Amino acid sequence: MINIRVVVSVLSLLSVVCIKAQDVTMFPESTKVLKIEPSKTDSRISTANTPHFIAYNSINTKGKLLLFIPGTNGIALKGPMHLFSTAVEQGYAVINLSYINTPAIARICKGDNLIGNTDCAEEFRNRRVYGDTTFTLIEDMPYDAIVNRLTKLLFYLAENDKGGKWERYLENGEPKWNEIALAGQSQGGGMSAFIAKTHLVHRVIDFSGGWDYSAKNKIAKWYFKSSKTPLDRWYGTYHVKEPTAHVIIETYEAMEIPESNVYAFDLEVPQGKRAHSNGVRNLGYKDQWVALLGKGN
Question: Which InterPro entries does the annotation name (predicted)?
Answer without folding.
Answer: AB_hydrolase_fold, BPSS1187-like
